[in-house]
Amino acid sequence: MTFVPQRSSAQCLCSGGVAPTAITYLDTIPVTNAASTTISFPKFDPAIGTLGCVSFDDTISGVTTTTAWNLQNSKWSYSFLLLVDNTITGPGVLSDKSFTKIYGPDSLNAKGNSPGDSITYGPDSLFTNIKDQKFSTSTASYLGASGNVNFIYSLGGGLNSIGGGGLNYGDQIVTNYWGTFKLTYYWCPAGLLANLISNFSAAKNGNNVQLKWQAQNEQKDIGYDIEYSTDGSNYFSAGSLKSNDADEGTLASYQFQYSISSGSEKLFFRIKRTSADGKSIVYSVIKTVNINSGGIAGYHTYPNPVKSYTMIEFDQVLSGNYIVDLVNTAGQIVQHKEVSLSGSNQIRLDLTSHPATGIYYLQVKDQNKIHQYISKIVIE
User: Fold this and answer.
1) Domain range summary for the chain, segments of one domain joined by +
2) 44, 113, 247, 269: which has the fewest Cβ within 10 Å?
3) Domain 299-379 is of which CATH architecture?
4) What's the whole-number mean pLDDT along residues 234-243?
5) HEC string for the chain
6) Model pLDDT, residue 190
7) What is the percent of the chain with per-residue pLDDT over 90, rounded to a whole number?
8) What is the band of 47 on the pLDDT scale with cuts at 50, 70, 90?
9) pLDDT tens digits, residue range 273-297?
């Protein structure tokens, strides 16, 4: 069995409910006990497209050592509550996680009567690989052709006397922390008009990529430029097509075959539509094709969240028998469908009886190659 993760997470959709394209950047904090640390990511270049939302993911760990000492002139029993507060702030994002631990009761000798007038607790692993994710649709601070967007990680908290302990004590708290951080931009092509270019798909078929799309209410002398990229930013022409006068006013269908020549692991495709007078230019959504995937198709699911139906779109043309199961979080199959594909890269699942709102898993099994594709969906 092969588990293939989804290529991107559609937390904010493009026009027409189309899933956005995702760009992810990573940063790390090595072990430190600084009071605050800056986490930096490159800004999103608005020339690429329209930024819809961002997600910030963090995974943090910390080890705390605490020392307390008696400042009174007599022996005293202490109990303590340790609080370590982790705060991450950035444009439209606030992540605040607090961790506590209770120590004592412990008797400490009078001030200056060492040994025994102080005690050290730890080192304690107060938090280990704690994960969090925040989303923001306030994107203005993330835009720029150059420069960085910064997040600040800061530590706070303290040691408090509890359970009848005295207030005359001193303390020192040292927390060594580290973590990994991820910023994901979800964006749509600039000028996307889903009502003009629809059902665009790109799928690997042998040594070629098969591109298909449709045009609603087609017009005369429309130009379609097929563009490809190896990095998702810089696009080049792969060829062009002209609209057929006979298709005027109808739903016109187009297809184009791209011969694979690049050594890149991924290729990105989009359609550029130019009006007859050359004054109006719009772009399709961007489709990604995994070139060196070892025979296992990449895929994504849209729309997500799901209202009445969802599409599973592969980046390869597939043939064979498939089982589609909609599974709830208790592991129960709530909908089952068997599909035979012959040179296709899409499966549509209509919700026959609308399940309860919530999180589900969509499982697609290839009966011939024993591959399984799993994605998480939200049903509204």
Assistant:
1) 19-188, 192-284, 299-379
2) 113
3) Sandwich (2.60)
4) 90
5) CCEECCCCCCCCCCHHHCCCEEEEEEEEEEEECCCEEEEEEECECCCCEEEEEEEEEEEEEEEEEEEEEECCCCCEEEEEEEEEEEEEEECCEEEEEEEEEEEEEEEECCCCCCCCCEEEEEEEEEEEEEEEEEEECCCHHHECCCCEEEEEEEEEEEEEEECCCCCCEEEEEEEEEEEEEEEEEEEEECCCCCCCCEEEEEEEECCEEEEEEEECCCCCCCEEEEEEECCCCCCEEEEEEECCHHHCCCCEEEEEEEECCCCCCEEEEEEEEECCCCCCEEECCCEEEECCCCCCCCEEEECCCECCEEEEEEEEEEEEEEEEEEEECCCCEEEEEEEEEEEEEEEEEECCCCCCCEEEEEEEEECCCCEEEEEEEEEC
6) 56
7) 36
8) low
9) 888 888 777 778 778 887 775 556 6
Per-residue pLDDT, 183:
93
